[in-house]
Write a structure and sequence with these properties.
- Helices cover about 65% and strands about 10% of the residues.
- By secondary structure, the chain is mainly α.
Length: about 170
C-alpha cells in the first residue's frame, strides 16, 4: 500500500504540478486589463473626478445616447451593483439623467446631461489617443489577430459560463 504524499514532497506527475500564475492565461489577461485601465484612469480620474466604472457607464451611454440600466450592465460587463452605484454617483454629479423606463417600472433609462456630454466629449479624444498609442506598437496584421483572439476568448468564456449557469 502506497504511503500518502507529504505536503512538501514534489508533485508525482504533471497533474499535480503547481500552477505558475505568471503563465496562467486568465491571470495574464486580467493583469494586462488592469494595467490599461489604471493607465487610462490616471489620465482622467483627477481631471474629471470619474472612477473607472463611472467612465464605463458614461462611455456606453454616450455611444448610444440613451440606454436602460440593463443595457449598460450587458455592454460594460459590470455587475448590477457596480453599475447602480456608478449611475447614482454620475447623477449626483449632474452628468447623467435617469428617467423611468416606460415599459418597466423597475428600470431606468439613462442619458448624459449637457454637462455629462461635455465631459464625454473631452474624454473621448484622450481614450482614442491612448488606444492609438497602445495599438501603435502592433502591426495592422497583429491588431487584427489580437482583436480576433480577444473575441474568441471572450466568446468561449461566455459559452462556458452559460453552460455552467443555465438560466
Amino acid at each position: 500500500m502506497a504511503s500518502p504524499r507529504r505536503k512538501d514532497a514534489p508533485p508525482a506527475d504533471a497533474h499535480e504540478a503547481p500552477l505558475v500564475l505568471g503563465e496562467f492565461l486568465p491571470y495574464r489577461i486580467s493583469v494586462a486589463a488592469e494595467a490599461v485601465s489604471a493607465l487610462f484612469a490616471s489620465r482622467y480620474e483627477s481631471r474629471f473626478g470619474l472612477t473607472i466604472p463611472e467612465w464605463r457607464v458614461m462611455a456606453v451611454v454616450g455611444e448610444h445616447q440613451q440606454q436602460s440600466t440593463q443595457q449598460v450592465i450587458e455592454r460594460t460587463g459590470m455587475d448590477r451593483v457596480r453599475v447602480s452605484r456608478a449611475v447614482i454617483r454620475l447623477a449626483d454629479k449632474g452628468l447623467l439623467d435617469r428617467i423611468p423606463h416606460p415599459r418597466d417600472q423597475r428600470a431606468q433609462l439613462l442619458h448624459l446631461t449637457r454637462k455629462g456630454q461635455g465631459v464625454y466629449d473631452q474624454i473621448v479624444p484622450l481614450a482614442r489617443a491612448l488606444q492609438s498609442t497602445l495599438a501603435g506598437m502592433l502591426s495592422a496584421e497583429e491588431r487584427a489577430q489580437f482583436d480576433a483572439l480577444l473575441t474568441k476568448i471572450g466568446d468561449r468564456a461566455r459559452e462556458m459560463l452559460a453552460s455552467e449557469n443555465p438560466e
